[in-house]
Amino acid sequence: MAMSSTAVAQATTTAFPQMNGAHVVTMESPHPYTPISVNGSADDYHCTLVDPHVRQNAYIVGSHFYPNSAEVHHAILFEVLPADVPQAIAANNGGKGWSCFGESGVGQWLSVWAPGHEIEMTPKGTGLSFPKGSMIVMQVHYNLFEGDKPVSVGLKLLTVPVTKAHLIPLYVNPFAAPPDIPCAAGVNGPLCNRTASLSLLAKQWGTLQAVFVDGLEQSCGRNPSDPPGGDTTTCTTPVGFSGKILRIQPHMHLLGTGMKVTLNPGTAYQRVLLNDMNYDFHYQRSFDMPKPVAVKATDKISVECTFNPQLAQELPQLRRLPPRYVTWGNGSANEMCLAIVSSIR
Fold first, then answer.
1. Segments forming the whole domain that contains residue 36
2. What is the pLDDT at residue 12?
3. Could you tell me if residue 3 is inside a domain?
4. In the 8-state DSSP scheme, what is residue 335?
5. What is the DSSP string of 85-133?
6. What is the pTM of this model?
């Protein structure tokens, strides 16, 4: 992946660095999980609760997720605070986990693993706050086109007790734009109609997914019934917090080719934070800001994504599927335009 002039890619490492007082916590899913097709979809989302047994307030400063199989499309780690642990244990089905399309249903975003990642370290001087007694939900997205064998995923965390570290808490916030990608020129089929494609989305993933698409369109100032379609999408929203942006991780699916993130677009204070026009799903990376970028809650942030619909007829994972109008969705054949922003406040 090429680096933009305004951001620097974080280097891939294979081992946690040495840190005074740090402790490596190793976990894995208690039971192998065999992904299954849901309503004809080639994708499955499954959540598993794991306990890092952190018995004093700590910071997480590094994570290393082990997919252990090609069918793992991506994973999101959620932090379950002590007050919510009973709810997570109840959902965990005796260690076997639960189906969790979309969100996990419990916990808050902690970090994201996607192909190309190995060890993810927090920016220097920061850590993700992890109160004692908290747990982790591993939400794993499986793509059955890559396989359907039992999978046991693993996770390592590098933690530092609060009493032994003077770190600034790091926060993770997603900023999204709704993809509306018509079928490529010269490609036709029943699902090239947006309404038909959304009906399939609701059938495969539940009506709430279609509702989410409408809500995302509205939050970006679009008409949910007739949003602008094309190979690019843009959404501008308030930042929503005051602090400093340290890192951005772009995430799209298989049609994604580029992402641009701009602070206060169209103003005298406009600043491009990320301009990655060589996005590769199989080599996803985080980008650190050369210097922390100060923001106010009322500032605006714009996320723009570029897609290549022709890839739907070229990629082995997609060309076996009927052509479709592609909207936001959890499946590999759907798309996302998601800038995952890490900040301090």
1. 8-168
2. 37
3. no
4. B
5. HHHHHHHTGGGT-EE-SSS-SSSEEEEEE-TT--EEEPPTTEEEEE-TT
6. 0.88
